Known about the structure:
Layout: E1 46-49, E2 54-57, E3 66-70, E4 75-83, E5 89-95, E6 98-103, E7 105-106, E8 111-112, E9 114-117
Antiparallel strand pairs: 1-4, 1-9, 2-3, 4-5, 5-6, 7-8
Amino acid sequence: MLVLGCSAGQALSPPSPTPLPSAIPPSGPYDIPGTLTALPVTGPCAVMIFSSNVSVMGSPLNGDVVLGTVDLGATYPVVGKFFADYGIWYYQIKYGDQLGWVPAEYGDGPQLVAAPQGDCSQIPLIQP
């Protein structure tokens, strides 16, 4: 049998392992990126922010007013949620004296933006 790339008597070396991503995928609630500390599942529903420079929008629909940005590692109370037809969850949060929206994730990766913590079972679905 002819194996391309090898000369007679040369052993094949195993392929190099694929490096693991540095960020934990959004498969569950986690503490600050890169850790496996579970977020609380009791208490009031809130989201923890996992990315910097995330805009808080007046609506989860494109082109709406930016109310400001949320802080990496901060938590914000959740009052509603919305599932966009393009497959992204948005959380309506208390942002100062206003209500605003942050995405759960964004990008092609996708990159985790906000993860729920506490008891979110009673948070209503809202149609903006």
